[in-house]
Write a structure and sequence with these properties.
This protein is an alpha+beta fold. It has one domain: 2-Layer Sandwich (Ribosomal Protein S5, domain 2). The protein is built from four helices and four strands; from the N terminus they run αβββαβαα. Strand 1 and strand 2 form a beta hairpin.
Length: 123
């Protein structure tokens, strides 16, 4: 799990949604905004109520997304034991899930997150 300092708050979500650029994959829409603070990096996982009607499904999608994200960061050697993360650029990012996250195998989710990070220049 990401430490609290690496989680995006509601003000950051609003900022990224209004000014961030978009990177897409079959299961995710990733909005990213470059940060001016060196070393600052924050992420959020969002499951829209329009797509996932019940709270149980929204929570499941967010848990799967965060687990896949943690797996990618750990596999890339970026996640240390104290949850410190080293990335190329400082950024704020939001993973917006779509319906495929529920049925896709976990390996596909990790591959897509890896692809998104590479395409956006984060890893």
């Amino acid at each position: 799990m990401l430490s609290r300092e690496h989680r995006l708050d509601s003000e950051g979500v609003s900022l990224v949604m209004s000014k961030g650029r978009v990177v897409t994959s079959p299961s995710f829409l990733f909005r990213v905004l470059e940060s001016k603070n060196a070393g600052t990096f924050k992420l959020a996982a969002v499951a829209p109520k329009k797509i996932f009607k019940t709270a149980v499904l929204r929570n499941k999608v967010k848990r799967r997304t965060r687990a896949a994200l943690f797996s990618v960061l750990k596999h890339a050697g970026l996640m240390a034991k104290n949850n410190a993360v080293a990335v190329r650029s400082a950024f704020f990012g939001i993973f917006i899930a779509n319906q495929q996250v529920l049925t896709a195998p976990f390996s596909q989710l990790t591959d897509e997150i890896q692809f998104i990070f590479e395409k956006s220049g984060i890893l």
